[in-house]
Amino acid sequence: MTSYRGSLRVSGRIRGERLPTIGIATGATATGIRIEGHAAGRSIFTLAGTSDQATLYLDDGHRSATGRPEDLTDALMGVKLGPERWLAILTGCVATSPDFVAGARYGPDLAVTTSSGRVFLTLANGAWHTVDGTFDGLVVTYGRFASSLPAEWRLSSEASRDPSVALSVSVDDMTAGSPIAPSVFSLTLPDDATPMTLDELRQSGPLRRKGQ
Predict the structure, then answer these.
(1) What is the count of structural domains for the chain?
(2) In-domain check, residue 210
(3) CA atoms within 13 A on the CB side of 74
(4) How confident is the model at residue 211 (pLDDT cuts 50, 70, 90)?
């Protein structure tokens, strides 16, 4: 898939702190990302940009941060998500590159390793579907698909004890393969936006990680 637009609902824990259910509106291509978070009828944050640089705006306090998108998402919620990886997760690919490193068959299931992750697939109704995948110390587990796209999935840390990230995602609406205008991946900040560093975001952002 070359593009994705959808509406998601996210809940779970980040560094032991339970999150309220957050609505996410998102758009992604291999080089562009946009994630808008909202809850209780109000906007929480907007992140938009390209693989090289993105901008994050926090409605609370009118604060903003800039940097590579994976650095911003890591500071915000403890998960590094650049455009290519985010698109791969949303579409059920997990791995960002198709280069084959190794493969193994386990009955009806198949494990495929690439340079960007390991993906486990199962054969159902004559088609291969991703069951789960691992990358960068994280596990994506898919629970349900609608047509060929994930409708429910979970993103969590590989460590089984006291996981730093444990998020459940359900998809309300999705479209894949349609062109996305470049303007979707740009963000104009209001004049009163106050710059903040990644460290400040990590410590005091709306999804801050406690104990750090």
Answers:
(1) 1
(2) no
(3) 14
(4) very low
